[in-house]
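Re: the request from the purification team.
They wanted to know what the chain is likely to look like in 3D before they choose a buffer screen. I agreed to run a prediction and write the result into the notebook, where they can find it.
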Amino acid sequence: MNLQFFRKHRKIFFVLMILAVFAMVTFGALGQLGEAIERFGGSPESREVVLNIYGQDISRERYLNAQNVAATMGVFGEAAKDADEATQALLILLVEAEQAGVTVPQQTAANEFNRLSAEEQQQLVGRMQTREAAVEAIGTIMTLQQYISLAGSAAKVLPEDVDDIFRSMYQSANITQVTIESEKLLDQVDKPTEEALEAHFQRCRDVLPQESPEGIGYKIPPRVSAEWIYMNVDEVAAKIEVTDEEVLQYYEQNKFRYVRQDEAEDGDDAAGEPDASQDEPADGTDAPPADAEPQNETAPQPEAAPPAEVAPEAAPEEEPARTLNAPEDETTESDAETAVTNDDQPAAAEGDTGDAATAQESAPADAGSDNPPVIQSENLDQGIPADSPAATEPQQPEVEYIPLDEIRDKVTQDLKKSKAQAQMMEKMRTAQMRLEQTPAMSLMGVAGDPQGEDDEPLLHIGRTENPVSQEEAAELPGIGEAAFMTERGPINFPGIALSVRPLGEGIFPNRPYGPMLDQEGNMYIFRITNVVPARPADSLDAVREQAVADLKLIEAQDLAVKKAEELVKQAKQSDASLADLAREAGYEVQTRTVQGIMAGEGSLERKALDAFDRDEDKFGTHQTADYKAAIAFEVTGGNHVKSAIYNSQRENMTRQALRLARQQLEMEVLGIVGGGYGSQPSLDLEKLKQRSNLIYKGQFAERQPQVVPADE
């Protein structure tokens, strides 16, 4: 549901909405809270207390209302493990907002609701059951946003925080890198003892590989059983007849598909085979072949909060050699307020025109710098007359369309497939509707005669023989590569299938979903018939072979680390370079440039840049998290932040540091951890429980562990 209100405010409150569960939005599965109510034991008294937060009792009715809001608005989304976790976190934050005096008048929420289109209002009311509940949901989200914004306004940054931003944007180091692969040392590792194997197994038996930074885990992944009906586009197209007039019309409307290509270009056919999943409908217009997934709902955003404070900058004593050329004037809050207006754009690079570039041109180049001289824009068009076509407008390549007579058979087949897609969509929608209306109906009852009638498209049936994991689902013929085509890209079957409840917060078991398309244009509707949760590995014997291989790899990396350290030691004590010593030892040598923006905590890039900052000892070692290698490196050069860049961009970087500090503080208040590069954000509910002294009561107390109050 693309609510205008949500889009309007997405910038300030994007943290919550990037966590929204895409499957909830895709399939319209929200609002199905019957199961949630049943978990509370049918219809007990709504005033029964189920939680106590900060000493305030939370009734069953309030809990269920919050659960409805959390689900419908996508609060926390994939960061929360389940609906209860998202609901409890939301209630904790709302109680904190009340204590902070943050409230949103009902009329304000009603005004925001009235700004929605009639269709958007109808969708929201449909999910919240009543208009009053829909307005209340908007008010709840606005309250939460204002509270988070208020908390974020307390963020502060130090001068070194600003310097870190400069380093990440402008600092780089040139390194010689020697990679010593663990796998090549496996023959030097003894077979692990039974005691070591058992200890290793116990550490990893309840961990999935994707949950471990090392990629080692023996937990049996969740699995599902599925069944589906599908239609083969070629079978349907074979029954379709088209006229010459229709072929000509289709050719004219889709002429862009039939352009003469360079024969040397990848060996493609002259006309190029169009993607069947992207075929136009029978009328020849350009439209998606299947239901496009609705875009994720974006929660309403609060008004901008006052700028966060900037801690006063301490006066530098003496600028160390080869470090930031920081000016000695202080960074104040007014500096951030008067920063350049284009603060949402990346900071200017060293080659940019303007004051920064002018100042840089007058400064001598760093010794050993690999940067090429700055090319001024006025030098680029020298020698081109002003009235030349090349100086006035770019030359457009000529397009040569393949005549219809040369590709009539192909165009005819494309038209038949386009018509087939339309027939398949109609047939599959009818089948899906019947399955929705009668969940107990078998697929055979929907598909009918597997041979089909002469004038009817064929429906086929498929199913998994045994429950499959996400990886195994991707290997299923046909449906394994099927996906929903959306504006944000394909959403594939394996990911959707394994988001089924209770494994995730996505689709529901025994409900039909689709239609989906594979790469050939075949169409599918599926439903999940069985869910097998993940469980710890049964025994060491069940994973013994993999456990032995993993332990040997760990031991092999220890050997690789020792060899890397020895190589660095030799390089420090001899006149030979690390590269020469490595080549003599038979190791592969690489040279590369690492950028500050790539330098995560503990990464090779961070270690290299730290070594670059040192006057001496430009060497170091690193071991990969997956145990596959150890690395020895030497810093041979690089670029520090130039004084001209620092002076011209300090205000911009200060504002950027403030934004990052504010975002970090907001995430902390929300209880969100992780979410950095390559990691999935998650909700740390236990931390929120400790913070709020949450106590379970009523039926919750019977099945939830009590939380020990945090020390004051």
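For the purification team: The CA atoms of residues 271 and 407 lie 8 Å apart.
Please add any questions underneath this entry.
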